[in-house]
Specification:
single chain; 536 residues; mainly beta; Immunoglobulin-like; Jelly Rolls; 6-stranded antiparallel sheet
């Protein structure tokens, strides 16, 4: 609280107005807000609440943000009579950098020649924020299998979404590469003007894969957006050569194994031609009897993949058909059913995976009981071929999957069929189908990565995440053993894109050594993670 004597001039900030429709300013849109890349006239009104006139009033504007350049920082108000209000004879003039983040606070201080001297003046900047992903890939000049294979030239189609607070300029898109195996061709593709919440599909952007590229390789392309003048944005886009794991099950099954989960249980997994999902195909995996014959009682059958490398932001997609014994009188409960698990330690330990939308059933008590504990989430009941999608972005390194089916000692049904499993990587979406960018929680790749402070000093990596709705949550930093080293951010958070800079230190401000670390975002009941390498 400021003490003042009314028996002298005393000036307060009565109002201010932005004029962002400046001649020659390519980004000014005249909406009266402080947007990226704009040159702004700032008109200020001062009110004299004292009992004496304020003579020859002047003021100077100080900017505290690195995203602001003051072009005219001094203003004259002349004499402001007691009880009167006046505006400056000419407006203040400032420029906002094109790279300013969305919702960035822009604090100012107005130094006035009369008491109380310094008055705060705060603005908020608005800018586009982009989400982008691959929605289609054309390798018709290669083998036409819909994958980017070594030695092929492929055309990419992207979906670009503006989830920020300001309309974009008239954009074009181009590709660069962070991988020696990916060589984008020169040229641009039109994007257009993206309003807030708007998006566009962009193609054709061509990438050539070097013949020496590994059969599966995941790295980053760079998506470059610009207006041909002073606006330029660049951010990473995950791109995968080949596929870490994919099988239509029509060939031999050498990459699969199956067995009973434990002794005294039955294994009924086998390759079956009675039902199939693959267009033009003939075979799927079934847990049950031959043809449409049912499974037995007391089955605990495991169908396991070979090891594969998990790409960044990986997703598993597969199709299944099921007829298993649920509890007719108790909706949501089942006696028999199947589930999916993952191991990242060569099968020593397994973690149950949760599909998008969750499992529709859970195991209820029965005698004799099946292999799954009470309340275990499972697929059960009866439905035709249905696609399942599972987010694997929490997992890195080498992994294997297994589909497990269990039955109790009473009643049976036809069984469980699995077909066309496929794993891909990408953020926020990947071929063959686009996902709605604004409908999911995303943790964007950290940039730069690796983080390498020059001379062993301090630098910063930018972390961004997107929330489709307001949510509580937290963003933590972990070492490879799972020990939390720092809590980087804590909600509640509004819907939209959030941003922070991390400087390579733990919670106590101590620089962390070189190594691999993991960012873990918990929000909206979901978990997302990303790997970060620190090099000192």
């Amino acid at each position: 609280m400021i003490d003042f004597d009314l028996n002298r001039p005393f000036l307060t900030l009565a109002d201010f107005v932005l004029d962002d429709d400046q001649s020659g300013d390519s980004h000014g849109n005249g909406d009266g807000r402080a947007d990226y890349g704009e040159t702004i006239e700032l008109s200020v009104w001062l009110e004299n609440v004292g009992e004496l006139d304020a003579l020859d009033v002047t003021a100077q504007l100080l900017a505290e943000s690195p995203y602001v350049e003051l072009l005219v920082d001094e203003a004259e108000f002349g004499t402001i009579p007691a009880g009167g209000t006046a505006t400056s004879t000419a407006p203040l003039l400032l420029s906002i950098a094109s790279e300013v983040p969305d919702d960035e606070p822009l604090p100012f201080t107005l130094l006035v020649s009369e008491d109380p001297g310094a008055r705060p003046l705060d603005l908020v900047a608005h800018a586009p924020v982009y989400l982008a992903g691959l929605i289609a890939l054309d390798d018709a000049t290669g083998d036409g299998d819909g994958l980017a294979d070594p030695g092929e030239r492929v055309a990419l189609q992207l979906r670009i979404q503006n989830v920020g607070g300001s309309t974009t300029p008239d954009l074009t898109a181009a590709l660069g590469s962070h991988s020696p195996y990916f060589s984008p061709e020169a040229g641009t593709a039109p994007v257009g003007i993206l309003p807030v919440g708007g998006g566009a599909e962009v193609g054709e952007l061509w990438v050539e894969l070097e013949p020496g590229c590994p059969p599966f390789h995941s790295d980053y392309l760079s998506l470059e957006l610009g207006d041909g003048a002073d606006y330029q944005m660049e951010f990473p886009l995950v791109f995968c050569a080949g596929h870490p794991f994919g099988d239509d099950l029509e060939r031999d099954a050498v990459s699969w194994t199956h067995a009973a989960g434990e002794t005294d249980w039955l294994d009924q997994w086998h390759r079956e031609g009675y039902r199939n999902h693959t267009p033009g195909g003939a075979v799927s995996w079934k847990c049950g009897g031959p043809g449409d014959a049912p499974y037995e009682n007391l089955v605990y059958a495991i169908l396991e993949t070979a090891d594969f490398v998990v790409p960044p932001h990986a997703r598993l997609e597969f199709w299944h058909w099921i007829d298993a014994q649920d509890a007719d009188s108790l909706p949501g409960w089942a006696l028999d059913g199947g589930l999916l698990e993952i191991s990242t330690d060569a099968g020593e330990t397994w973690t149950q995976l949760t599909p998008e939308g969750g499992y529709p059933y859970q195991i209820r008590p029965s005698t004799p009981a099946g292999p799954f504990p009470l309340f275990t989430p499972v697929w059960s009941g009866e439905h035709d071929w249905t696609e399942v999608t599972v987010d694997l972005s929490d997992f890195t390194g080498t992994a294997r999957l297994r589909w497990a089916f269990g039955s109790n000692g009473t009643g049976t049904a036809e069984g469980w069929y699995i077909d066309d499993p496929r794993i891909g990587g990408g953020w926020p979406s990947e071929a063959p189908g686009a996902r709605a960018a604004l409908g999911r929680v995303f943790l964007a790749p950290a940039v730069p990565n690796p983080l390498a402070p020059a001379g062993g000093g301090r630098a910063a990596v930018e972390v961004r995440w997107h929330l489709p709705a307001a949510s509580t949550g937290q963003l933590g930093l972990y070492d490879p053993s799972g020990r939390r080293l720092g809590l980087l951010a804590r909600g509640p958070w509004r819907a939209g894109v959030h941003r922070l800079l991390w400087d390579g230190q733990d919670d106590r401000g101590r620089p962390l050594p070189s190594g691999t670390y993991y960012l873990r975002l918990e929000a909206g009941g979901l978990v997302r993670s990303d790997r970060l390498v620190l090099v000192r």
